[in-house]
Design brief:
It is built from two helices and five strands, in the order E-H-E-H-E-E-E. By secondary structure, the protein is of the alpha+beta class. It has a five-stranded mixed beta sheet.
Amino acid sequence: MSSTVKLTVLYFAALREQAGREQEEIELAAPLDAAALYALLAERHALTLPQSRLRAAVNHSFCPWDTPLADQDIVAFIPPVAGG
């Protein structure tokens, strides 16, 4: 029996431009943590910002990169905000 995980991914600022979308629904064969998900999406969409410059949020709360993801989670990757 295979379990799939459905996630909503939100992209902000430069990530939104690079991914060409504000959000997407993805389905994975196995659960990942936030870091593994970003690595997968960085490869899929040619995202250039390194993970070290981003913050991850799950279900609208900032979280560590090793936070496991569960079915129906909303995951956001947030780049630094430029001041001015």
